[in-house]
What does this fold into?
Amino acid sequence: MSGDYRALPSVDQVLSGAEGQALVAEHGRAPVLAALRARLDAARAAIRAGADAVELAAGLTPALVADLAQAARSGLRPVLNLSGTVLHTNLGRALLAEAAIAAAVQAMANPLALEFDLGGGSRGQRDDHLRGLLCELTGAEDATVVNNNAGAVLIALNSFAQGREAVVSRGELIEIGGAFRMPDIMARAGAVLREVGTTNRTHPRDYEGALGPQTGVILKVHPSNYRIEGFTAEVPAPALAAIARKAGVPLMNDLGSGSLVDLSRWGLRREPTVAEAVAEGADLVTFSGDKLLGGPQAGFILGRKDLIAQINRNPLKRALRLDKIRIAALEATLRLYRDPDRLAERLPTLRYLARPKPEIAAQAARLAPLVGAKVAAWGYACAACDCESQIGSGALPVDTIPSAGLRLTGPGGDAPDRLSARLRGGAVPVIGHIRDGALVLDLRCLGCDDDLLQALGG
Ligand SMILES: *Cc1c(COP(=O)(O)O)cnc(C)c1O
It folds into this structure.
């Protein structure tokens, strides 16, 4: 049956044809060649197995076009985050303000005075662009910035507790997602973990009893992602600061999310602010750039000048430093905090967090029939529903924010999973969450109705 193979075009015939040329111009020669060879091999195998060669030959170019389009589609393309978690780590956390995006784009495309003092023409420091703003916004004496908050905790522990003890309450030995476990970070920092107190209760005397010449640092950690309730006691930061000061040991407070402003003005529950943590007497305060702050990934360390200088001399600082793009975006983001009245307008993450439920419910009512018409073709029904959003990334871990969305139901126990997979597979993937036998799309983070309708097809 070898004659059948001759119905298939040769590699050269395809590549020199008009469609082949267009594909080469779009994707490059090597990828087209590889995809074409794979298709031809598969076609020959199919012919050997008895398939119709003429039909296979006719389908070759369309299949090639589809293969190359699929391969060219980025796994990093935007998705619609209707998961109900606003700061979703797996979806990239905070969305940047327009000013931050513009600053980042400018930094990407141009040389800039990153480590260059334009006044004197001498060498400057890249952190200088952020230090002044951070101190102004928080009341801290000094500040430094690294790759992320995990890096901030690592370098601070390494700077002050390498070969010495880091004292921490048993109730604060946290694991947060993505393999950040405080005991592991401590081990990598070269610090010896000294646990004090019990899971639910830790007293001043527990800390005092553990302090000695071997102590490098006292660490307080915001228990992101969980809360201990019931018969509990923790030593408040000001009391802990007094204990640390008396012992001559630095107190470090890892806030995790760390907000620069009081969120209660937007109807959210109060998270301790960075300024409060500084005022309470912590010698060092660490927090993330891409959680509540609403900027790019970064880790801030604020605090006493002599301690920040010591961190900046640590060779790990060079390994954990930020690039110009993120420094530019961070500077622009921090600048927005000088005008808190307009923050919610300008910071998309805060805008979504602050969206009032009635506005989201109206959007759900508007979209329910339109989305219903689309999913009916796949055998699903759609209704507006109430739901609860989470902030995410360890901020206000057990609090939820009243929200509204769409509840999609279909026949069969696996209906939500099937629909979830289908929506994830679209050109603009839609990420919801499964609850009580339905796929729920929380509309809190849907800026524009059309975005969802288009993602669902047309
Ligand atoms: C999120 C968090 C971290 C890690 O911060 P990244 O910016 O993700 O590296 C550390 N500590 C606490 C308490 C956190 O919540």
Observations:
- The CA atoms of residues 200 and 231 lie 7 Å apart.
- The mean pLDDT is 93.
